[in-house]
């Protein structure tokens, strides 16, 4: 079986969501630096979309069991 245990996928999804949220926070900060008016909708999308995308990518790319049995 090549599927990962649920705890591994959950952890990877959480890490991906955190990385995505950090990217969104940087996006909002950069927009504020350039004096672009940041509305609530933009801020929500800038934080939510990368967080969801990061969670999906994290869950999809989670490593399975690292032990190998070549037999």
3D architecture notes:
The chain is an all-alpha fold and 71 residues long. It has a domain at 18-60. The protein contains 2 helices and no strands. Helix 1 runs antiparallel to helix 2 (40-60).
Secondary structure category = mainly alpha
Which regions are unreliable across 5 or more consecutive residues at pLDDT < 50?
none
- Which outline best applies? elongated
Number of helices: 2
Q: What's the overall average pLDDT, rounded?
A: 78
How many runs of DSSP E, i.e. beta strands? Answer: 0
- The succession of helices and strands, N to C, reads HH
What can be said about this structure in brief?
The protein has 71 residues and is mostly helical. It has helices spanning 6-33, 40-60.
Features:
single chain, 71 residues, mainly alpha
Please write out the topology:
Blueprint lengths: L5 H28 L6 H21 L11
Helix pairs in contact: 1-2
């Amino acid at each position: 079986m090549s599927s990962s245990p649920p705890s591994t996928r959950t952890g990877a999804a959480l890490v991906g969501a955190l990385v995505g949220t950090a990217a969104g926070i940087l996006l909002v900060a950069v927009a504020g630096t350039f004096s672009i008016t940041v509305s609530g909708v933009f801020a929500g999308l800038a934080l939510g979309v990368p967080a969801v995308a990061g969670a999906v990518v994290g869950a999809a790319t989670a490593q399975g069991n690292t032990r190998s049995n070549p037999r």
